[in-house]
Amino acid sequence: MANTAAEEIQVGALTVRFHVDADESGGSVSVFECDAPAKARMPAPHSHDEFDETVFGLDGVTTFTVGGGRTNLNPGEALFIPRGVIHGFSNDGEVDARFLAIISPGLMGSRYFKDAADVLAGGGPPDVEKLGEVMRRHGLTPAPPT
Q: Are strands 87-90 and 62-66 parallel, antiparallel or unpaired?
């Protein structure tokens, strides 16, 4: 398998780069990097019923909320997010952050982020129903409104 530069996918304020896409691994794993600029947050907290996620801090501090508990992910630290647990993240600091995410099994790939980016690209508030449809189609369950 060739080693190629990862395509950047802009999802709102976040930038995602896949290093191993689901179809490249035969569905065993997906690996992507995420840049979270200062003051950015994930647009839609969610859970996934069929896969786990492990995140590894690379730069800055990303604050993850997993099952209601908040955890700061610093460079060199890892956080496991089990399937079925609602989670989200934000960068509340003044410095850009970056983390690596591993999805296992690799049931979600770059197509999810491209589809979500299309929904968020319209400007103005996101269409929550369309974003929810994209999430469900790719194995994510949107968190109920709080």
A: antiparallel
